[in-house]
Amino acid sequence: MDIFEHTILCKKCNAPMQKAKVIRNGFGLRALICPMGHDKIIHPADEEEYRKFKELRQKEYKVKMRIVGNSYAVSIPKEIVSFMQDSESLMNDMVRLCFEDAGRLSLTFKDMEKKDE
Ligand SMILES: [Zn+2]
């Protein structure tokens, strides 16, 4: 059973902490928050995921463009995909691609959007 399923009391006021979601850099983390605002506990598993996410974010990959039929293809490093893949498979999923800035494209994965809600 998940630790967040248990009632956890605030150390200061003894009120039961309430479930909440904290968004950091587009990354959703489960949290427990004191209704009086004394304390905030981030789920340890999510904290660990977030730490890995920050590590990956600092990395820069150099990938080659290839021609595949009438398109160009770039490879997304496996460690990025496997990080996002955690719960469900991303294979055959549609990814949103758009021109963000001159010289910059962005990819949006459905899975990550769901995590934010
Ligand atoms: Zn409190």
Keywords:
117 residues, alpha+beta, 3-stranded antiparallel sheet, two-stranded antiparallel ribbon, 3 helices, 26% helix, disordered C terminus, binds zinc ion
Question: Please, could you describe this protein's structure?
Answer:
The chain is an alpha+beta fold and 117 residues long. It has a domain at 1-49. It has three helices and seven strands; from the N terminus they run E-E-E-H-E-E-H-E-E-H. The protein has helices spanning 44-58, 78-85, 110-116, and strands at residues 18-24, 27-33, 40-42, 65-68, 71-74, 95-101, 104-109. It has a three-stranded antiparallel beta sheet with strand order 1-2-3. The protein has a two-stranded antiparallel ribbon with strand order 4-5. The chain has a two-stranded antiparallel sheet with strand order 6-7. The two termini are 23 Å apart. Zinc ion is lined by residues 10, 12-13, 15, 34, 36, 38-39.
Which bin fits the share of residues in helices?
Answer: 25-40%
Broad shape: elongated
Structural class: alpha+beta
| DSSP summary, beta strand count | 7
Q: Largest sheet, if any?
A: 3 strands, antiparallel
Bound molecules: zinc ion
Give the overall average pLDDT: 86
- The strand line-up of the biggest sheet is 1-2-3
Order of helices and strands: EEEHEEHEEH
Number of helices: 3
Give the distance, in angstroms, between the N- and C-terminal Cα atoms. Answer: 23 Å
Radius of gyration: 19 Å
In terms of DSSP E residues, the strand content is 25-35%
Which blocks of ≥5 consecutive residues have pLDDT under 50? 112-117
